[in-house]
Amino acid sequence: MNALLIKNGRLLDPASGRDETTSILLQDGRVACFGAEADSQAGDADVIDAKGLLVAPGFIDIHTHLREPGREDKETIYTGTRAAAAGGYTTVCPIPNTDPVIDTQTGLKFVLSRAESDAVVNVMPFAAVTRGQKGEEIVEFGDLVYYGARGFTDDGHPIMNSEIMRRALEYSAMFDVPILDHCEDAALADGGSMHEGHVSTKLGLKGIPAVAESLQVARDVELAAFTGGHIHIMHVSKEVSLHHVRAGKARGVKVTCEVTPHHLTLTDDELADFNTCAKVNPCLGASDDREALIEALLNGTIDCIATDHAPHTDIEKDQPITDAPFGMIGLETAFAVLYTELVLPGRVPLELIIEKMTSAPAKVLHFEPRGTLAPGAPADVVLIDLDRKWEVTRDGFLSKSKNSPYVGRQLQGGIEATIVGGRVVYRDGRIVV
Ligand SMILES: [Zn+2]
Ligand SMILES: [Zn+2]
Fold this sequence. Notes:
Elements: E1 3-13, E2 18-27, E3 30-34, H1 35-41, E4 46-49, E5 54-57, E6 59-64, H2 77-86, E7 89-94, H3 105-118, E8 122-123, H4 141-146, E9 152-153, H5 162-175, E10 179-181, H6 186-189, E11 194-195, H7 198-203, E12 207-208, H8 211-227, E13 231-233, H9 239-250, E14 255-259, H10 261-265, H11 287-299, E15 304-305, H12 314-317, H13 334-343, H14 350-357, H15 359-364, E16 381-391, E17 410-420, E18 423-427, E19 430-431
Parallel strand pairs: 1-4, 1-5, 6-7, 7-8, 9-10, 10-13, 11-12, 13-14, 14-15
Antiparallel strand pairs: 1-2, 2-3, 5-16, 16-17, 17-18, 18-19
Bound molecules: zinc ion (ZN) (2 copies).
């Protein structure tokens, strides 16, 4: 029987309200018990001395582009899940905008079998809403749920056809799985490279107005209200969108949303030197947007944090800003960025950040009892050194791609170890399986 005793760490588990220095025993892939009971039942278990470390549930990322199949030059299930483990993530949800798009049971089976052989963390895939993500014809919804789709999304593309979104949300209500939407009015956003505001005007770049996002958020909330389906707004980024989410929640609509670490910590000023690594979709907003997102994280309008880890090659990113693709990687910097930029300055409590990266995404996707360290829950754990300072370097990434705007930054908060199903997969800067 495999068993692991983690001693002397500060156990922080927001879902159970536990925050104390104690032992935790992991046995046969599950959380077994705590404290003196854990010490006495450990027997010949392996032991990790976590003195001075934070012990938390492993992070859950519900928005990860792993690029396989089709763009293995950018990332694979092998490399992407290693990057996840290095970032403290124990579960990721790959986005189906691959080549081919994951829109059939064959595609889904490929991802699951590749995860079985190559992944070092749990992989909970989504399927596309429409065939080929063309926005025209809905996939075999029930079939894909049966074969393991944990949600449906055409992310990478907005769903412009409201009739399609209506039908998708009706299926959502029927099968109790969320529709995750990349909210963007295609016509309003067309040709834009960054947020429409004074920075875009100064740079002479075509901007994307905030209303391109908020219009679709408003429509999705209305359709969720109409159908009873669950709409999850991906990577909410603009203040004006939050009003619709808040109003929907107040009306009892099944609407949830996520925010990325980059939208919480960066603004469109990052584009001032034409840094293509800061070109993301949705684009980085103004400082008012960033402040509103932080406020919405604190007051519960925003349900959880997700990375939108979007790997791209240097060749693609080394183009003029108007031609470079949207996206940045995020798995390996997410926690340290949030800790350095939001927790240390006293903006957001550590416990809330951990909750929004663990039990909160588990709740959105019905992954419970993942996301907590309650007895019987999967033994997915992260050990963090909150005092460790480190510099983000290109060479340091386990991801195949290096497109991060945080390269060169000093951050605080280092992942010491990542444990998946009771097995240590990452420790002291290395994958150990
Ligand atoms: Zn998106
Ligand atoms: Zn995405």
